[in-house]
Specification:
The complex is a heterodimer of chains A (257) and B (213).
Chain A: H1 3-6, E1 14-25, E2 28-39, E3 43-47, H2 54-61, E4 69-74, E5 77-78, H3 83-92, E6 93-96, H4 108-119, H5 124-137, H6 153-165, E7 171-175, H7 183-198, E8 202-206, H8 210-216, E9 219-224, E10 227-232, H9 234-239, H10 244-256
Parallel strand pairs in A: 3-8, 3-9, 6-7, 7-8
Antiparallel strand pairs in A: 1-2, 1-4, 4-5, 9-10
Chain B: H1 3-38, H2 43-57, H3 61-74, H4 81-107, H5 110-118, H6 123-153, H7 165-176, H8 179-211
The chains are: A alpha/beta (257), B mainly alpha (213).
Chain lengths: 257, 213
């Protein structure tokens, strides 16, 4: 292993470290020299125009996408191409998707119990207790016996959050969690995410919800063309963006709201 | 046509049912393996199973049975008729069921696999708990349709000496000179095993559709 070569300057309390990560789809470069360090408990909001690589970036963190160059470390584990490190990382990292991706043939409760039982080896009773507790926390406990299709979009997304939390992850990745929702359901999901942030979860959120970014983010990162263009605390990011592309993007995004 | 002749037909029916069961079970087990290899993402395995499917979908079942029984005997591998037919039907059914299930596995939205991976579910659990239950539901109409075809296809086993239902009908018809009556009864017997299967398939489809609602 050539670990020492690239991973020199990782801060001690770093949860996620990306060093010079590059990714191509054939000839198209999807990510260019991504360097990102996320401390424990930090909340990052990733934004940028569509196709800017923000989803690709977070999908690399739990290896839903591979990358060709650079290095990613999650909680000290260097993410390689082997099943062992991928598995180790995925157990620490929860993910919430734009389209929820709940398992339609299982009840809400079964959705939440499956992964802890299968991949952590938790007993059935314990898995159920955890699932019910977390469903309670996302305020949807009374729907536990229903199937996903019987719930509204906002409810489904809250179940998806609870399902990810049942694995007791150290990091949560959110990939446009409110983009597929009707406007009136956005708030219930954001409120759930805000509550999670207040409990100290380390979070990386790809979202265009700038109100959420202002309220919760420690840093806002703007991406374009597969690269990180600008990175700043929310006040500075929104009041004094340094780059022209950021200003243009913010102009377009804020106009809509 | 007397009682003895009718009993003879029923003996034929017994063989038809047994041959179908062999095809179902062998085809089910190996067909699942084919479907899993075909979607494994490992290029040589995918190509290998794709060729296998192409070969067995592209040639008549009659020829396949012929090759397994007489062809293997020519190269010195003398198989019992039962074994030959079991192998023949299993190979045939595995190719078709493998292809049907490959399609259904691929029809399950990609997000399901991604969610399962993100939850660190390993391959076995991803397939058994997440993908296959959904794929089976998608594949049900085509699977039942193929099984019904297979039941009727067992008549081809007559060429290697099986007196299954169709051949039994043929024999009785030649003895009694009442082909219309005999084959009418044969047809009814086929219908009586195929139709309930179709009904059961439709019932399963409805039940699964309600469960996912």
């Amino acid at each position: 292993m050539n670990e020492a070569a690239t991973s020199a300057a990782a801060p001690a309390n770093a949860m996620i470290d990306m060093f010079h990560v590059e990714k191509w789809y054939g000839d198209f470069q999807a990510l260019t020299d991504i360097n990102l360090s996320v401390r424990k408990g930090e909340k990052i909001v990733l934004c940028g125009p569509s196709g800017s690589g923000k989803s690709t970036l977070i999908r690399c963190i739990n290896h839903l996408e591979g990358y060709q160059k650079g290095e990613i470390r999650v909680g000290g584990t260097r993410l390689g191409d082997d099943a062992r490190t991928i598995d180790a990382v995925r157990r620490e990292v929860g993910m919430v998707f734009q389209h929820f991706n709940l398992f339609p043939h299982m009840t809400v409760l079964q959705n939440c119990m499956l992964a802890p039982m299968r991949s952590l080896g938790v007993g059935k009773a314990q898995a159920e207790a955890t699932a019910r507790e977390l469903l309670q926390r996302v305020r949807i406990a009374e729907q536990a016996e229903k199937y996903p299709a019987q719930l509204s979009g906002g409810q489904q997304q809250r179940v998806a959050i609870a399902r990810a939390l049942c694995m007791k992850p150290k990091v949560m990745l959110f990939d446009e969690p409110t983009s597929a929702l009707d406007p009136e359901m956005v708030k219930e999901v954001l409120d759930t995410m805000i509550a999670l942030a207040e409990e100290g979860m380390t979070m990386i959120c790809v979202t265009h919800e700038m109100g959420f970014a202002r309220q919760v983010a420690d840093r806002v990162i703007f991406m374009a063309g597969g690269a990180i263009v600008e990175e700043a605390p929310p006040e500075a990011f929104f009041s004094a963006p340094r780059h022209e592309r950021t200003r243009k993007f913010l102009g377009e995004i804020l106009q809509k709201h | 046509m007397g009682e003895a002749e009718f009993l003879f037909l029923l003996t034929g029916l017994k063989w038809t049912v047994l041959l179908s069961l062999v095809g179902f079970i062998g085809g089910g087990v190996f067909g699942l393996a084919v479907a899993l290899l075909r979607t494994s993402g490992i290029a040589p395995l995918e190509r290998g199973t794709a060729s296998y499917i192409a070969l067995f979908q592209g040639t008549p079942l009659l020829m396949q049975l012929f090759v397994v029984y007489y062809g293997l005997a020519l190269i010195g591998l003398k198989l019992d008729a039962w074994v030959a037919v079991a192998i023949g039907f299993t190979l045939h059914a595995s190719a078709y069921l493998g292809e049907i299930w490959r399609g259904s596995i691929e029809a399950v939205p990609k997000g399901q696999t991604e969610a399962a991976k993100a939850l660190s579910l390993h391959y076995l659990s991803r397939m058994k708990d997440v993908i296959l239950p959904q794929a089976i539901r998608i594949s049900l109409p085509a699977t039942v349709g193929f099984l019904v075809q297979l039941i009727k296809g067992t008549s081809l086993a007559a060429i290697v000496g099986f007196t299954e239902l169709t051949r039994a009908g043929n024999i009785i018809s030649n003895q009694t000179f009442k082909p219309l009556l005999v084959f009418g009864i044969v047809g009814i017997l086929y219908f009586l095993i195929c139709w309930p299967l179709s009904l059961y398939g439709a019932h399963l489809e409805r039940r699964m559709a309600t469960a996912s609602r």
